[in-house]
Amino acid sequence: MYLSDIYIYPIKSLGGIRLPEAILEEKGLQYDRRWMLTDASGKFMSQRSTPKLSLLQVSLSESGLEVRHKQDETIHISIPFEPKSTEKKTVTIWDDGVEAQLVDEEISNWFSTQLEIPCDLVIMPESTQRKLDEKYAVNGESVSFADGMPYLLIGQGSLDDLNEKLEDPVPMDRFRPNLVFSGGKGFSEDSWVQIQIGSAQFKIVKPCARCIMTTIDQETGNKGKEPLKTLAGYRTIGKKVMFGQNMVLLKGYKIRIGDELKVIEEK
Q: Among 123, 143, 165, where does a domain finish?
């Protein structure tokens, strides 16, 4: 088995980036979900309520992020790594309230115009510690603006298994993984406890519960019923539909596509 894809999503709920290699950090892959859009009340925004977020694609440059509209290349903006604003505000992600830093009022206005909703772009300062739930943490880890966990792993075989059951196959981007591996059987990751990818080691802490975001076409922003409807038929555990495994980093600095994946411990 080997690592076949690496993805980051620098701005939560916007289009992701496939990388040949990535730096590993406690909160997740470097740059992954370190930025986030919030509504006027400071609550996080996502494709669940604002599907058109999927139409904004992010890329990395030497100086920061570039955001463009997938359907109109003339609509774009540059976001420097270093925020222009020094203003801090408390934002909420699910049940967590954390301190974030506003990036730039003009950039927030650009997003507000594109989404037709008043919003702010914020960044997570290095000083902010959004602690994992104690029952999943190994060494008191913190996480970024991700829904709950630093790393999400999915096997290509698991997607293949699902697509065999669908009338219209779906791409992996519906599930927004960080790491995709090839070479294993479908859902083999369900039984793993600890793995090694290259020289890095991870602990698998819990399966990932899926939501309506998986039903949003990432190229059009249109919602459907699949693949959630089919998944619910054979991947429901305790009233939640599971696909993929959440992980925390135990050790390691960098991973690359092609790195061998070894199972260290199984259930």
A: 123
Confidence class of residue 38 from pLDDT cuts 50, 70 and 90?
A: very high
pTM for the structure as a whole:
0.97
234/248 Cα distance (integer angstroms): 26
Q: Which residues of 164-190 are buried (b: 16+ CB within 10 A; e: fewer)?
A: eeeeeebebbbbbbbbbbeebeebbbb
CA 209, 213, 216, 217 torsion: positive or negative? negative
Among 229, 123, 252, 77, CA closest to 168:
229
Same domain, 11 and 101: no
Q: Tell me: do 148 and 222 sit in the same domain.
A: yes
- Identify whether residues 147 and 241 lie together within a single domain: yes
Same domain membership, residue 202 and residue 156: yes
Number of domains in the chain: 2
Q: Looking at residues 178-186, what average pLDDT do you find?
A: 96
Q: In what order do the strands lie in the sheet with 72-80?
A: 56-60, 64-69, 72-80
Task: Identify whether the C-beta of residue 111 lies closer than 8 Å to the C-beta of residue 37.
Answer: yes
Is 44 within 8 Å of 145 (Cβ atoms)? yes
The domain containing residue 35 runs over which residues? 29-123
CB 144 within 8 A of CB 130: yes
Distance of alpha carbon 9 from alpha carbon 27, whole angstroms? 13
> In the structure, what pLDDT confidence band is assigned to residue 122 with cuts at 50, 70 and 90?
very high
